Amino acid sequence: MEKTSFNIQLVLDANNVHSQADWWAKALGWIVEYPNEDFLKELSDAGLLDSEALVEFEGKRVFRTASAIHQEKDGLKTGIRIYIRGVRALKTERNRLHWDIEAKPESIDDVVSRLEKMGAKRIGEHFQGPNRSVQMLDLENNEFCVH
């Protein structure tokens, strides 16, 4: 039988990778993946890391142009990960891909309200049959929906 992988990593382009990682981790209840100091030392000792590659974010040394978040259930990674990649260009067009946040067990309105308080913007709402979805923008205007 052929093996298949059900792990998935989505990539989000961002101008401020660490603020986006922090925001999305809080929005989803996920975990920010901070680099392990031993790993950074190994890279540095091997000559694979120069001092310009790292910055400090909230008291931690992090990669300047990358971060990631993941979901955990019962202390174990689920296999779902969002990699946040630093880019210089500002977002100018609609996303070709976006994700949906399932509000359960909260109500859609409660989740939307919480995300608006965190800086998200509500941009629309639509129904597909009895199913309601609220369209929103994150801090860097990436589209997502709450349903």
Q: How do the strands and helices of this protein lay out in sequence?
A:
Blueprint: E1 8-14, H1 17-28, E2 31-32, H2 37-45, E3 54-57, E4 60-63, E5 66-73, E6 76-86, E7 99-101, H3 108-117, E8 121-128, E9 131-137, E10 143-146
Structure notes:
This protein has 147 residues and is α+β, with helices and mostly antiparallel strands. The chain folds into two domains: 1-89, glyoxalase-related enzyme like fold, CATH 3.30.1900; 98-147, 2,3-Dihydroxybiphenyl 1,2-Dioxygenase, domain 1 (Roll), CATH 3.10.180. 21% of the residues lie in helices and 39% in strands. The strands form three sheets. Strands 1-6-5-2 form a four-stranded mixed beta sheet, covered by helices on one side. A four-stranded mixed beta sheet has the order 7-10-9-8, with helices on one face. The N and C termini lie far apart (36 Å). The model has no long low-confidence stretch (mean pLDDT 91).
